[in-house]
């Protein structure tokens, strides 16, 4: 039977809190400009599906100062942390235990439905996107960050990170029944769902646009949370996986080095 939360262990690891913090600091400054393009009024209803520790939810609540934001996740530890960090935004911003597979809210409720960094980590992304479209109002927007691990590029040295990603992504994806390239698959799913005005943009997390320390913090947190799992699902040992991650981190920290993570931001209007 398909495990609907194959990354439960990694999501609950302390390193994930660091991952989500660093990712938001790297991505949000460019992402917010894409959200502004939707030209939404500020008194809207927003859903943040798979909210984690509330990095995106809190930024959305601040961006739309009269909006209500319902942020949902299935990991109570993240929800508790989010509530304690962002109490100042209550009751406009609330955190609830709900699954993106079955949100249990009425059809056509939200003007803006956001799902950041979730659908690469769970199976059946088409079912999740259908559920998100169901709860979005006519004329409302889906705003997604569907990750794509084929869009990470580092420089070669003693190690070649391309070999690492090539090996790990294929085996990890197959073992967990997840699409680690869902950034490029999301478009097709949204077309099939009959959504309109689909846009695909990129937040460019690179060593020119983002501080090297923030970018390095992302890969350090991935290393700490995922080295074991990547070893379990590849020909690499844990030590070798750590060495590849350390190579990527050194590439980012090298003042003459260049590395880039292209982060797809996909949106669509619900007809
Ligand atoms: C990588 S985190 C992203 C968190 C947040 N969206 C952000 O941008 O910081 C993915 C989150 O999806 C959550 N998740 C996984 N399966 C879920 C489900 N079925 N329903 C709701 N959340 C889920 C995980 O618990 C985790 O908190």
Quick gist of this model?
With 271 residues, this protein is an alpha/beta fold. Helices cover 45% and strands 21% of the residues. It has helices spanning 8-12, 14-36, 55-63, 76-85, 125-134, 161-176, 182-192, 212-232, 238-253, and strands at 45-49, 68-73, 93-97, 110-116, 136-145, 152-153, 196-206, 260-269.
Q: State the major sheet.
A: 8 strands, mixed
Q: Tell me the helix content.
A: 40-55%
**In one word, what is the shape?**
globular
Helical stretch count?
9
Instruction: Tell me the quaternary state.
Output: single chain
Mean pLDDT: 96
| Ligands bound, unique | S-adenosylmethionine
Distance between the termini: 34 Å
Query: By helix and strand content, what is the structural category?
Result: alpha/beta
Outline the low-pLDDT stretches.
none
SSE string, helices as H and strands as E: HHEHEHEEHEEHHEHHE
Strand content: 15-25%
Task: Report the C-alpha radius of gyration, rounded.
Answer: 18 Å
* Strands, count: 8
């Amino acid at each position: 039977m398909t495990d609907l939360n194959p990354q439960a262990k990694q999501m609950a690891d302390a390193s994930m809190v660091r991952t989500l913090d660093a990712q938001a600091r790297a991505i949000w400054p460019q992402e917010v400009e894409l959200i502004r393009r939707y030209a939404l009024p500020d008194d809207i209803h927003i859903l943040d599906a798979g909210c984690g520790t509330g990095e995106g939810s809190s930024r959305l609540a601040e961006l739309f100062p009269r909006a209500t934001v319902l942020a949902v996740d299935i990991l109570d530890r993240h929800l508790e942390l989010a509530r304690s960090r962002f109490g100042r935004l209550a009751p406009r911003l609330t955190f609830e235990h709900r699954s993106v597979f079955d949100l249990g809210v009425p059809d056509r409720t939200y003007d803006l439905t956001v799902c950041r960094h979730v659908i690469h980590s769970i199976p059946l992304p088409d079912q999740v996107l259908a559920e998100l479209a169901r709860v979005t109002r006519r004329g409302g927007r889906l705003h997604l960050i569907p990750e794509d691990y084929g869009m990470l590029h580092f420089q070669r040295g003693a190690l070649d990170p391309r070999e690492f990603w090539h090996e790990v992504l294929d085996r990890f994806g197959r073992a967990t029944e997840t699409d680690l390239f869902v950034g490029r698959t999301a478009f097709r799913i949204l077309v099939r769902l009959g959504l309109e005005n689909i846009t695909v943009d990129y937040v460019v997390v690179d060593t020119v646009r983002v501080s090297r320390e923030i970018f390095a913090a992302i890969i350090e947190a991935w290393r700490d949370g995922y080295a074991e799992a990547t070893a379990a699902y590849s020909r690499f040992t844990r030590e070798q996986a750590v060495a590849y991650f350390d190579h990527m981190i050194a590439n980012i920290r090298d003042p003459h080095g260049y590395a880039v993570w292209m982060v797809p931001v996909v949106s669509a209007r619900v007809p």
